[in-house]
């Protein structure tokens, strides 16, 4: 449930939307609308994603600034004049739950791709710096791969700590 905004212009816009189905209705300082009156793009996606991933948040749905309710029941339907006052959620279908899970997995996969492309950009920048003689002395061939690596700058063991892998080269 979302309280009517304190901003006068935005509150009037909300009231105008409600009055499309309730002609003489006027909001009070306690008036609220449920999430069903807003389109999906009216909500902050990051809060929704955190909630779907199981990260604790105060609220699952957070309206974006300036969001205006645009979803209202059509005149002539049984829902007109019966705005929901219930706080219980309707039962979720298995399909809807699977679809949400698929979207979360897709967003996570995109996030991993973005972070790995960021890492490879950083590595490219380091290699370019090294090519100009300001780094560890590694040079780069035309293929983009290092021509020469000094013994302390390269580790084949990704899952082990550098110092434990190269104990004999570490001087202490």
Summary keywords:
2 domains; two-stranded antiparallel sheet; metal-binding; two-stranded antiparallel ribbon; mainly alpha; 5% strand; elongated; 172 residues; zinc ion binding; THAP_Znf; 4 strands
Widest beta sheet: strand line-up: 1-2
Low-confidence stretches: 78-87, 135-143, 145-167
SSE order, one letter for each helix or strand:
EHEHHEEH
Radius of gyration: 28 Å
Beta content comes to: 5-15%
TL;DR?
With 172 residues, the chain is mostly helical.
Description:
The protein is mainly alpha-helical and 172 residues long. It folds into two domains: 1-74 and 83-90, no CATH class; 91-153. The chain has helices at 8-18, 45-52, 94-131, 162-165, and strands at 2-3, 32-33, 139-140, 146-148. The protein has a two-stranded antiparallel ribbon. Strands 3-4 form a two-stranded antiparallel sheet. Strand 3 (139-140) and strand 4 (146-148) form a beta hairpin. It is elongated and about 60 Å long. Mean pLDDT is 70; it is low at 78-87, 135-143 and 145-167. Residues 73-97, 115-172 are annotated as: Disordered.
Layout of strands and helices, then pairs:
Blueprint: E1 2-3, H1 8-18, E2 32-33, H2 45-52, H3 94-131, E3 139-140, E4 146-148, H4 162-165
Antiparallel strand pairs: 1-2, 3-4
